[in-house]
Amino acid sequence: MRPFFAALLSLPLLAGGGGTVAFKQTAFMAEVASTEPEKAKGLMYRQSLAKDRCMFFVYGEDGSHAIWMKNCLIALDVAWVDAEGRVVETAEQVPPCSPMRGDDCPTYGGMVPARHFIEFPAGTFKRVGLKKGDRLGWDLQLDDGRAFRGGAGLPKAKKK
Q: What pTM was estimated for this model as a whole?
């Protein structure tokens, strides 16, 4: 394993699993949401998300996986991907939804069937040039210890 990816995989993560998501030459340290409680919590209450981080939401089948930003305090860029890692839908600069709104938060995405989605800090897509049709790769470990790899594969990536 390349030293860069080994270092990324060794850092502690807050969700149930972790690993790396890559786009072209850019790697992101990923938290994994694979259980229903992890998916429901997502990035709620986070004050920030570093530019080299993301959260990968794992699903077992294609579906309409819309998101809402209830109790989310930061804006996000979101990519919905098919099983091969191809970006089928995006939402940029998705705004947080104030806790004052309760359950009255709008939903985003989910208009195109997708297998998974990945949340990145707002501005990531512009910074790395990610758009619909591009391919992402992932090398993740789920909270039960299983490896979960897919998409475009992981190139030799550099931080951006």
A: 0.86
